[in-house]
Amino acid sequence: MSTMTKEEILHLGTLSRIALSPDEVDKFSTEIDAILEYVSTVKNIIADDASTEPIVGARYNILRADEVTNEPGEYTEKLLSAMPQRDGQYMLVKKILNQDE
Amino acid sequence: MTVSEIRKQYIAGTLSPITVVENSLRVIKEKDGEIHAFLDTYADEALALAKVAEQEYKNNGVNTPALLGIPVALKNNILVEGKRASAGSKMLENYIASYDATIVTRLKKAGAIIIGSTNMDEFAMGGSTENSAFGPTKNPHDLSRVPGGSSGGSAAAVAMGAVPVAIGTDTGGSVRQPASYCGVVGLKPTYGAVSRYGLVAMGSSLDQAGPLVNTVADAELIHNIMSGLDAHDATTIASDTYPAVTIKKFYTFGVPRDFLGVGVDADVLANFEAHIDSLKAAGHTVVDIELPLFEQGLAAYYIVMPAEASSNLARYDGMRYGLSVDGKNLLEVYEQSRATGFGAEVKRRILLGTYVLSSGYYDAYYGKAELVRHKMRAELEEIFKKVDIILTPTAPTAAFKFGAQGDPLSMYRQDIFTVPVNLTGVPAISFPMGTVEQEGISLPVGVQYIGPHGGEARLFDIGKQVYDVSLNGDK
Predict the structure, then answer these.
(1) How far apart are CA B415 and CA B428, in angstroms?
(2) Topology given in CATH for the domain delimited by B1-475
(3) Is the domain A6-43 a CATH 1.10.3860 member?
(4) Is B402 near chain A, with CB under 8 Å?
(5) What is the mean pLDDT, run by run of 10 residues, along chain B of 475 residues?
(6) Domain extents for chain B?
(7) Please, what's the b/e burial string for B414-437 (b: 16 or more CB within 10 A of its CB; e: otherwise)?
(8) Which of B16, B31, B75, B180 is catalytic?
(9) Nearest CA distance, B453 vs chain A (angstrom)
(10) Taking CA atoms, what residue in B is nearest to A60?
């Protein structure tokens, strides 16, 4: 059962913003096909009444008060210093609007 | 030495934190060139803290915090302010953490001395440390074999005698499986027991941090310090979230017999049967149970985990931190940064996760996997009405040789007994149950005790009876 085409792998690369080499496309299309075949056994699970009930119990939303908990600028320099490209207090990114297009 | 032994001697004044820290650094210097359990060490800071700790013990003795002067190693996906947090990836090779993880804050408050960071599979994806961007860690018992993973560096650091405590993270078995391969104790706590704030996220509904140590008593000590509610992680649970477990003199163990037929090595199974016999001889009851959905666990896991990982790893875009590769436009910066920064296993899981979450496939894969997970929880709830603890080998084999698991699926199958625990959120502990002989070398193998939600206290109680007592007998 081979369902994963090279085009599909390339498309997944585009969706996940990873440039893939031709070798990687070859390798991943075979490997991901095998993994998908294996995990497809979950499709045989049939939903019964019990399993469609919402999960209740320990999981619920926990919200904190909407208030400032730090001094202005307390963490600014620490976080900015990790940025690959910055200009003062700004993060530098590539232009996304091109007037020529 | 165990943490409690070291602590006792610190208080008595027969051992100095300086000696212990110096010894840790010496072991690392002597052995780690070959084993490569550590990525970074913080020698100067550790020695400075040891000097302070020594004075503290002189002044306050038994009234000092519980881990004062105890050297601890941390898997390198745990953030320590001012230290590199690489997660075993080129993507974060030069990333310096800007804050402490909650577990780090708690360990520091308890007086622990963080002596270094340990090697791991890239972004905790793998079961051998072969996926580390900085080269694999070797198993201290046999250098031709893997230490397990993804917390392989932490397990090897304890097994080689460099530290009495190392912290790992466990998304599908990443603390327990290396514990089994390296012959140490490893705990995966109840989901929510330990804050995930400041851990590099992989599968957020699965990840938990736990100790790798020499005894169950040490696991209990470290877990109790790291666990508890945290305002920074809304999924943390309170001590009364789940009903308190009963502590008994004799327990009923359940063995999922059918589940053991999935390719467990004969020598591992022989150790497991001997372990069952020893439990019976000690007066415990061992019964066969059926967990048919647990066999579906691995399939469900390799849908849920890549789905969550692909979402979590979307943050590495070359913009705010981490590796950035220049390109002619923004899209190319993204695509080239991620192509260069991520290794093969990480890319594989991101692509797989993107596929199972994509429109048209979501219901067939992710929806079904979550359904399996839901039904597994229900199955488990029924079983825990009949038994106190579920028993399995931790992994189907002993530590394997480098390169032995050639394709991704055979590597994934090593997780068969550990992933159902993460999918259902219950706690489990692995400790050595014996050894197997391979090519004339004794390799440790672990047994896994699985408890109900919030059942750590029961695991510690029985684990101390079964494992810690056996250690004392050896002396």
Answers:
(1) 14
(2) Amidase signature (AS) enzymes (3.90.1300)
(3) no
(4) no
(5) 96 98 98 98 98 98 98 98 98 97 98 98 97 98 98 98 98 98 98 98 97 98 97 92 93 95 91 98 97 90 97 96 94 97 98 94 90 92 97 97 88 93 98 96 98 97 96 63
(6) 1-475
(7) bbbbbbbbbbbbbbbbbbbbbbbe
(8) B75
(9) 10
(10) B235
